[in-house]
Amino acid sequence: MANPLTPDVLLDPVVLTRALVDIESVSRDEKVIADCVEDVLRKAGHLSVRRLGNTVMARTKLGRAQRVVLAGHLDTVPVNDNLPSTVVDDLIYGCGTSDMKSGVALALHLAVTLPDPRYDLTYLFYEAEEIESEYNGLNLVAEAHPKWLQADLAVLLEPTYGLVEAGCQGTMRVRVHTRGRRAHTARAWRGVNAIHAMGAVLRRLEDYHPRTVTIDGCTYREGLSAVRIGGGIAGNVVPDECSIDVNLRFAPDRSEKQALEHLQEVFDGYELEVTDSAPGALPGLSAAPAREFLAAIGLEPAGKLGWTDVARFAALGIPALNYGPGDPALAHAPDEHVEIGKIRDGSATLYRWLAD
Amino acid sequence: MANPLTPDVLLDPVVLTRALVDIESVSRDEKVIADCVEDVLRKAGHLSVRRLGNTVMARTKLGRAQRVVLAGHLDTVPVNDNLPSTVVDDLIYGCGTSDMKSGVALALHLAVTLPDPRYDLTYLFYEAEEIESEYNGLNLVAEAHPKWLQADLAVLLEPTYGLVEAGCQGTMRVRVHTRGRRAHTARAWRGVNAIHAMGAVLRRLEDYHPRTVTIDGCTYREGLSAVRIGGGIAGNVVPDECSIDVNLRFAPDRSEKQALEHLQEVFDGYELEVTDSAPGALPGLSAAPAREFLAAIGLEPAGKLGWTDVARFAALGIPALNYGPGDPALAHAPDEHVEIGKIRDGSATLYRWLAD
Predict the structure, then answer these.
(1) What is the residue range of the signal peptide feature (chains A, B) (predicted)?
(2) Which residue out of A202, A220, A238 would a mutagenesis test of the B interface target, given it has the greatest number of B Cβ atoms within 10 Å?
(3) First CA to last CA across chain B, in angstroms?
(4) Among the four B8, B36, B136, B227, which has the fewest Cβ within 10 Å?
(5) What is the rounded CA–CA span in Å between residue B244 and residue B267?
(6) ipTM value of the model?
(7) What are phi and psi of A225, to 5 degrees?
(8) How far is Cα of residue B78 from the mean position of the Cα atoms in its chain?
């Protein structure tokens, strides 16, 4: 196949978005798109290019005092009868338009058109963000080649609809158990009903008042939600076991350890088991490139509430933020689309910030 | 196979119990035992015998003013490494010893040894009591040949450990739903959590005070138990649906309609769906044969809390009670057994009552 990412296409981030969308790249099937991207980056000449699996890394080596990573994932969720792309007025429709090939287009356009940026730049186009983290290209690079990620700031071009969303909240899931004693329901008083006992746990959830925390001007709104409940043995048995899964979304001023301590306090007296946990990431907007980026964009940052790959950079001590043209509410939707105006705005902003 | 229920065996209800136990007859596999029982009854001469599937009915036609049914099921739960039977001191061990071949032995012994009872007697040895009611032999007879069941009193020889347990409680299962609105748990405040909403339902269960009701000297203790709870969509989704299954065991002074009205009152304001229901049965101990039975046994009756086939007789307007030598707590247990003394006591009591 001839590479559809021709020099002409690369010159216009809107045209480039469509071209990238039209290279189907569902998670675990990113070889073709990674080949096309690697080819383009190698031809650029001013970049040093490396590859790991279907993740492609390219960087400038200009000896600048500071380095910025621009990162985007190449994969999409499964196609939902929404390829190839179509254009209706100012909108490009298609799988991956918002999440996040429009963001990838901004980075790839910069990579080939800006040989002399204000900071040294590292471009990272990675595989398998939409699936289990064992396949996540950013994760694999962090393990195999952590030096590829070293920088003073990372910008993930995930959909934010042109806003700056900094850091991210952590997430922890715990299972809370209640125990009882089995009995036949015809002699219910001989048993202790573990489902009835769960009432007191639900009461604590109802009475819970989540915090709202502001850090570096970014506001994080916490939440504590039951996400599953289960119990019961048979239609005529008083059950001796019930469990509930609870998801805490916590602001990045709490560590995972502190989040767990908080949950132990909320569910004091109950058996509690952690089933899943990921740390948050502080916004880290005090670094010079971040301050300059905020100046270039002219917007106040907001806190990112969902968990994103910025936390993987934070775990390496690298401040990270999300900034992309897509609308996050449209990610994974069958009518996924992106506004052409948002792509042009985003490209102009990045140039304003990065062109020396 | 020669019929192991020989004339000698039939003369002793203890020996007969062992012989019946040793004819394996797990539900849906009752042909052999039904053949043996039918053969014995036909040979008795004074009985008129009929068969439906693996259910055998035999009756006297002496023109007595009153008729009593003696009924027992031939099937057992699956064998649990507890056949053939063994005897240790006063105990016979084995699958079905308590539930309810010792009871069947009492009836079969009477059938062949008491040609001239005080009332006309109908013996009913039926299949498939331990499984879904569509297979239940008593049920099938009630549909196909309701006249076989006509009587002034029915005695089910289910295990009661030699007590008289009269009538039975009804049972009703309802599903109570709570609804909410889905949202991502990172933005939990945009949703309404249906699991949290279930807290108020559980509170009503915790606060519930069940009635204790005495009818004809029999005490019935009601109960309201959650038997299943379920809800949840994914680990990061505020769920919009949760449901709980609740089992009401109700005294026979309530009809099914009244039981439902009661549940509608308890769960007022919630969506409620009946998933299963069976009426209770009044003890009906005022009929003459019942009063004479109580006099012969010399014990106060108790209310039956679990649902049993007596309710099938009650539905036909026939008072019914449970009376058998087995211990109900041992039914379905791997170490199921019956006391030889209880078999002899039961046989003597029935003779005292029924021999003219």
Answers:
(1) none
(2) A202
(3) 37
(4) B8
(5) 12
(6) 0.78
(7) -130, 135
(8) 17
- Domains A7-168+281-354 and A170-278 agree in fold: no
Specify the fold of A170-278.
Alpha-Beta Plaits (3.30.70)
Q: Which of B126, B130, B136 is nearest to B57 (CA)?
A: B126
pLDDT tens digits, residue range B44-80? 999 999 999 999 999 999 999 999 999 999 999 999 8
Q: For residue range A277-288, what is the model confidence (pLDDT) as tens digits?
A: 999 998 888 888
Q: What does the domain layout of chain A look like in residue ranges? A: 7-168+281-354, 170-278
pLDDT at A332: 84
- Report yes or no: B261 and B250 within 8 Å, Cβ to Cβ: no
- In sign, the C-alpha dihedral spanning A273, A278, A284, A285 is negative
- Choose, from B75, B99, B120, B222, the residue flagged as catalytic: B75
- The residues that bridge with A73 in the sheet, in sequence order, are A126
Question: Per-residue pLDDT tens for B110-123?
Answer: 999 999 999 999 99
Cβ atoms of A238 and A192 closer than 8 Å: yes
Q: How confident is the model at residue B94 (pLDDT cuts 50, 70, 90)?
A: very high
Can you tell me the distance from the alpha carbon of A191 to that of A240, in angstroms, rounded to the nearest whole number? Answer: 8
What percent of chain A clears pLDDT 90, i.e. is strictly above it?
81
Given a cut of 90, is residue B284 above it in pLDDT? Answer: no
Name the 3-class secondary structure at A289. Answer: helix
Is residue B116 annotated as part of the catalytic site, yes or no?
Answer: no
Active site residue A75: yes
Other beta carbons less than 10 A from residue A25's beta carbon: 25
Interface of B with A in 296-325 (CB under 8 A): 305-307
Structure pTM?
0.78
Chain A residues whose beta carbon lies within 8 Å of the beta carbon of residue B205: 193, 195-196, 199
- Measured CA to CA in angstroms, residue A45 lies from A42, A71, A150, A253 at distances of 6, 20, 22, 43
Determine how many CB atoms are found less than 10 A away from the CB of residue B8: 10
